[in-house]
# Entry
Amino acid sequence: MKINLKVWRQESTASKGKIVDYVVDDISGEMSFLEMLDVLNLKLVEKGEVPVAFDHDCR
# Structure
């Protein structure tokens, strides 16, 4: 499945943020939202980009 994500990216609380579009195309219908973010983050790291941060205790 191909999913289009719009993610708020902001380097710090003092910096200006923006919405960034990502396309993730290796998503199974059985995956949770957090698993989908894991797939996105793996792709970002492979490209040398900063992964999407989210509260780790929400799992």
